[in-house]
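Sharing a chain and its predicted structure for anyone who wants a worked example. Both blocks are below, sequence first, tokens second.
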Amino acid sequence: MGSAPGRTVRRHRSAQRYPAARPPLWQARDVITRIDPEDSHPTSGYAHVTLVESGRLAFFAGQMPMDDSGERVVGVGDLDAQVDRTVVNAARALAAVGARPEDVVRTTVYVVASAAAEAGRAWHRFAGSEIGAAFTSASTLLGVAVLGFPDQLVELEMTAALSAPGPAAPSAGTPR
């Protein structure tokens, strides 16, 4: 990959082309490159820039620590339990469109927190989870005063780059 005139870049430690996970028809897998400009500050694992060469993107609504009924927040008062449940819900959402955590190109984490350390703890728990690869791309962490449901402490938004549609496209969800 070249760099812009007068600007050099270094590839993020996780920069790579992801191999096709589909039959030969899908060999033209999207390309996701994670980049840290040479003059940028070090990060805790995310890339400053995520370059996507993709024709399809999936924008995920905020994933929350809701139970399967969608009526109850899981882990009231327990940030770690809420992050863990949000991971479960986010993994399901990714699977519904045939995406992997490595396909995520942008995350935004909202945490009800009055201290940066508490918000950071949530981000690091996400990054160490089964969807942790999603947090190697562009990522933003925000401490907020309140979220949409009573007792909700965390919410996760994601954007993923998907392969072109084809006969093997997933159908784990119901399109509306």
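Comments welcome. The chain has two helices and seven strands.
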